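User: Hey, my collaborator sent me this sequence without any context and asked if I could get a structure. I don't really work with proteins. Can you help?
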Amino acid sequence: MAQTHDHHSSRRRPSLGRMLMRGTYAARQIARFGWFTGQRIAIERITKRAEGDAEEPAPAAVQPSSGKTKSADLLAGIRELFARDLANAEAGYYPLPRDADGTPMQIIARARAMFDDLPVSTRRREEADGQEIFRKLNEGGEASSLPRYYLQNFHFQTDGYLSDGSAKLYDTQVEVLFNGTANAMRRQALVPVAQFLEGKDQRKLKLADIACGTGRFLRMSREAFPRLGLTGIDLSEAYLREARRHIGQRYPVRFAMGNAEQIPLPDDSQDIVTSVFLFHELPPKVRAIVAGEFARVLKPGGVLVFVDSLQIGDVDGYDRILESFPGRFHEPYYDGYIRENLDKLYSKAGLELVSHTPAFLSKVSVYRKPE
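Assistant: No problem. I've predicted the 3D structure and written it out in structure-token form, which is a compact way to encode the shape of the chain:
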């Protein structure tokens, strides 16, 4: 019996290669979690000191405004996300994550720049001033072709989405907010993309990432699907410049400046459309327009892979976190988004639901355009 037991145990034992893969993943993600969580804690302390030790709740990703969700539950959610991320890599949906945060000097420089910006972003938060950009444009007499809803200091960040400085800080700020889990949440969108591509010739297929921002998801897509035709569309010239820099010459991607309300792509031209963390920053009427644009550019039989915040009722105990978020981080359309009926919205646009998959504080939704 002992020999039989040993035989079955050896069959269950992970291979050396898999053990190395798991060890590498754990080392990388623990380091990222510690680095970004440490910065979050430092920001809390600096902010409290500046406010005369006034009570200030922690960012939503770690400590909610209500005792109904415990920090232990959120840490369990982070562990579950990382476990799924590793399992996806082991299953071959995408390569072992590298995150591409840059060199140690670049990482430190971005952290320093974020802390240098902290006093002014804290002032905006204290004053609930999310309209600084629009005010400056008006005072300077500058006309803007950008939508009014876009001309805001989302997250109370300096320059909103309109400057190179903002583009360089954006990913550091988001990772600090979510304790180093933002990339892992984005990567969950690669799974339905991989499933759609299975058995197909990637060289003949196209993916458009709408509101691609600094190009993090596009780089992940290029590394996972090297032959897939990729296009990134964004409304910010500065963020497109950062996306080109981040992706580099090694990973060719086509970029174009454009509004998601009028995507600069032909009808029925894309096999896959992706959208990552866009909809919660759009007014309700604009969300409907953009959903229609996603459907327009998709080929019949194509899929929309859509990532955004969890919504009310998605995960037990998380609703209070979602409800507390918009006031803390100037997200004026977020409260409406977390109550939006996405299935109804996309059904009106002509898309059919395939699946919803929660991933920590995000949700991956897949819709299909009928053939």
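In plain terms: Residues 16-50 form the longest helix (35 residues). You can pass these tokens on to your collaborator as they are.
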